[in-house]
Amino acid sequence: MKKILLSLENLNEVFPDDFTQEQIAKAKTLFLKKLAQEAHCFYSGKIQTVPKAPVVGFNWFNVGTHPGFQRSRPISVNGPIVPSNLPTEETLLAVVSDSTRVLGDGDCTPPGGLGVMEGKAFLMKYLGGVDAVALCVDSPR
Length: 141
Known about the structure:
By secondary structure, this protein is mainly alpha-helical. The chain has four helices and two strands. α4 links the parallel β1 and β2.
């Protein structure tokens, strides 16, 4: 059997030659689902919160906990809005769900839907450059 590359570029090539396209599609789905479960357990989730500012010494906690800007300050007067120039409230969002309609899983309860919401936050960070926090709410149904 051929070795799978870390990038998964050659995933189609690792299945037996006599597999039909349907069998390959099913095998890929099962493989990726298992890989997602293993990665989620290994990394204890898909996202983490990391401060952007350093904490060089104890007094830096004062710097990190102060808002650092006035609410009335204009964000952009002329030209495009650049994410690096925006305050956190413009570059941080929440992916909120009660997990009653999770894509691929249906109604799976908040703990069950958290991985999917983390996946959405993961995509927002890597494809959109926006920090996102997954939040699954156990609301009355």
